[in-house]
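To close the chapter, one final illustration. This time we ask the reader to focus less on the individual chains and more on the assembly as a whole: which components sit near each other, and how the overall shape emerges from the parts.
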Amino acid sequence: MNEALLIAATVVLLAALLALRSRRGSGGQLDSSYDESEGERRLHKWGYSDTRFEFDGPRSVRVTGSRYPLAGYSLPFFVPFAEEVLGVPITPEEMVPEVERGPLPPGRSCEAFLDACRQQLGEDHAATDDETRLTHSHGQLSVDEIYRLLYIGSLPRVADLVVFPESEDEARRLVSLAVEHGVCLVPYGGGTNVSGALSLPPAEERPIASVDMSRMNRILWLDEDNLQACVEAGITGKELERLLGERGYTTGHDPDSVELSTLGGWIATNASGMKKNRYGNIEDIVVEATLATPAGEVESRRPTPRNSTGVAPRLWLFGCEGNLGLITKAVIKIHPRPEAREYGSLVFPSLDHGIRYLKALRREGALPASIRLVNNTEFRFGQALKPAPSAGARVKTAVQRFVLARVKGFDLRNLAACTIVMEGTRRELVWQKRIIFSLAKGFGGVSGGAHNGRRGYMLTFAIAYIRDFLNQFHIMGETFETSVPWDRIHDVTGAVEEKLAEQCRSHGVRGTPYLSYRITQTYHTGVCIYFTMGFSGKGLEAPDRVYHDVEASLRQAILDHGGSLSHHHGVGKIRAAFLPEVQTEASLKILRETKRAMDPDDVFGIANGALAADR
Amino acid sequence: MNEALLIAATVVLLAALLALRSRRGSGGQLDSSYDESEGERRLHKWGYSDTRFEFDGPRSVRVTGSRYPLAGYSLPFFVPFAEEVLGVPITPEEMVPEVERGPLPPGRSCEAFLDACRQQLGEDHAATDDETRLTHSHGQLSVDEIYRLLYIGSLPRVADLVVFPESEDEARRLVSLAVEHGVCLVPYGGGTNVSGALSLPPAEERPIASVDMSRMNRILWLDEDNLQACVEAGITGKELERLLGERGYTTGHDPDSVELSTLGGWIATNASGMKKNRYGNIEDIVVEATLATPAGEVESRRPTPRNSTGVAPRLWLFGCEGNLGLITKAVIKIHPRPEAREYGSLVFPSLDHGIRYLKALRREGALPASIRLVNNTEFRFGQALKPAPSAGARVKTAVQRFVLARVKGFDLRNLAACTIVMEGTRRELVWQKRIIFSLAKGFGGVSGGAHNGRRGYMLTFAIAYIRDFLNQFHIMGETFETSVPWDRIHDVTGAVEEKLAEQCRSHGVRGTPYLSYRITQTYHTGVCIYFTMGFSGKGLEAPDRVYHDVEASLRQAILDHGGSLSHHHGVGKIRAAFLPEVQTEASLKILRETKRAMDPDDVFGIANGALAADR
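The assembled structure is written out below.
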């Protein structure tokens, strides 16, 4: 009787607390998911220089600055969690400094090209200083690029100069000049690529000019009647949303990298956004786009809604990975900012319950803009990033746990959680919520409140900084993703877990490897699984090499169990060797001949995917 | 006072009648939109030989057979309507017979190829008789192909033989044999193409073998876990739906030609289905597809939900129009048959009211599977296909008209109407209906009842037969379509109307040209407009030539006013000359070089679109 009373009381208390929470952070205000303020980009590392994880006590960390909701709070649980899952100490004493870098060797001579650029484009349209060259010689591939640069000290090839076109006309002239002077051009957008697509080919004998597109960042026209806009390709997601927001519009494209990555980069990588259920992936968002190639302009002259006019040239742009030309602009769909946005969250007894729920939800006609499901490890990772709780919050957490474990019978080491973002008209959201939450009950799901949904969604933007924090302890980490049919989800995740453990054992890795994952997107025939992996490289003879081998073996395990080569990160360099498992020999040959037709001199010699050097 | 009473009484009566009607034909039973029974295809003309329009009295027609809901009824309004809009007499006395056709000239010699086919594929896998050759030498392009064949008497080039592969392996062997023997192959699906894509190039010196894919019509596997199926490309829509229906599934792909057209044809043309709002167009439905080219197989080896693995080879298949190889199979999305289907209709005071409604509806999150808007002429065309009414129906029609005209203030010569098909869960349909009908009020829309919605949707399948009826009076008719941004709809339709009148005047066409149109699809940035046009060719010296010139001038008017070259019919031969207005020179050159990479000997020499002979 006593227990029943206690349960009743706690349920009432919990309901009151959740109701209170739901009112905050919900209510449909259309705050942005990230700080819209400008900021200086951090050299080489992820993101903005005002933001980093740092110790604020021997066992606790904080995020500097004020850019993200996480910033400013002391986070006492993160270091203990990381130590627990990685099995290695994370203390200020364990930190190792970055290597000292001397000046770069001088770039390959390309005086004539440089002069022509400065003359035809403008004096400040080219740079040859070390810092600019080096930052344009890598993306954000965690180990092969960032860890190697910071802790091993070198990149195999560095750009010889960087050029900055400011208009489509300048971009076209650059291409002509490169043809004329025998220079290799590498398109550079936000520098956030994580597939090695920005790693410069070591064997490239010609001068390499990185083409920084960041000054091509204007909205050329905005067509409110037809809900489309023509935008230069160098614009970042953040700037695009800011400019559109001023006019009352949004693209709805929200990749994890949205603050930094660019429209051109999204197209070249075939990007996916978190809210694709409502707004589509990049191939759905882009109506037309323009590619400046040495053979001329590839585009369709009229942006019309949908066509049957033969094989569409625009299709060459999606996934071109810098191989074919400069993406200069695109006509994209724009949406009036939705009347309402609400967050939600659900907790399920297990990942499998959540997966079955996600599949069932697709048949109900009420898909929210975003719904993501984290596995138990990733759930605990998210919990570990909570600030030190107040006394009230401690009570609340204890009550929540009690209810989940004792009342609902959840195993806290087995549960999984969904974060949900709904956007639309107010009445649409009423309908969506009714379906989403009533359906969840049939799969053992209970609401975790709007606040946790919002927090989970926002966390995405801040956690990328953790890699750079952990690198300081020689912990190498990376995310990787795949798309898999529904019935292969457990196979693929199981195979990756097993293979990672086996590989780390056989390579003599210290501690235990970390692996968590979430389902970030659902489709009719399956899902995208997004993995986060990390392990200590300390004591390994060639940690970057080991990491690369481990990652390749995980990719093979994914392919062997029915996953794809990539859902949205791309092929780049690190997955090029797997392409023949995915595409036929004829397809690859035809892709290479199409490239030759566009770029007979291989001006765009970045050699990604089907154009990789070993092909 | 008297009038107010009368109005009140008629409204009550009308409501009762509409309610009665709504119960019939609604209620969510999942009847197919067409008769699923097999039937013999009519030679050359559209559809099945059991169905045709014929006179059943001096001024009335009926549809033979029992295949379509329209069949068996006497239709007394159609001939008067046609005479009114075309301004020419349509009487049994005006009918002209088809030309007599003698035997075909013998085909080009290809004995060695024929022998090899019979030996390697089977004796009955090839045919050289006249009837088979001739039926495989055209599509359903109304004037250039059908009218010319039936009333002028010749086609510029006829296939020399027809081959019938029965498996992917046989298809591959056919391609090898064609390379070896210097034979030109032309893929042939349902023969429903209306862009001249099946017209054989007159200058082709090699023997032409039409590759009839109809025996490759099996579902190779059906994956219920992941809601996808692998299907041979020669299957017709009707057969595909029948086989999937037996297992409880549907593709939801419902082009007007669904009974006859094939999976391979849909891909090659980049087809669109009436229910694309729910199920997508063909590029959304197909997960992977296989193209057998002389350079080898183009396909991705793993059907996974969505990828970022470089430029996707599958994209070459959409819109390839027979130029690149044989499409042998595809993995497609399948959907459990929806829990419910309901029809609806709306009447608007004008087309513009309807257009603004369609645009607004897209923002409400409750798009029905299909919603189509007919202009006033097309509305009256639909009315003209109603059977002779019973006394009760006459009263009802009079009441409806009275209410529309006197109570609602509609101008019967200006109104426009929507037909609606909703599919989904029962509660989804409740939600959709609430949004759809409540939103319509704000645009002056009133419900026309479920019965009229169903009838309007079904009519699509029967009206194609009208062309062949009217041809007998030398009335040449055709449909053509375009996609246009929202703000260009009136410009485009106005320009087409004006240009048609002007052209017919200047060519000395008798009577008046007929033009009606409907909006068949809506997209974020615009719509598809589907035109129906016809005029009398009687007395013209070269009616087919005049028709072609008129159509080309309408296409130019469409392009000049912001429409696309085609929404779903394709480029084929008749629109190839316009391609340089739509694609850049570089794009067309690269397309041709891609073709060369796949098919260096031009085995697939059908020369459509960018590969047209004059390029």
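Residues 75 and 386 of chain A are 6 Å apart (CA to CA). The radius of gyration of chain A is 25 Å. With these observations in hand, you are ready for the problems at the end of the chapter.
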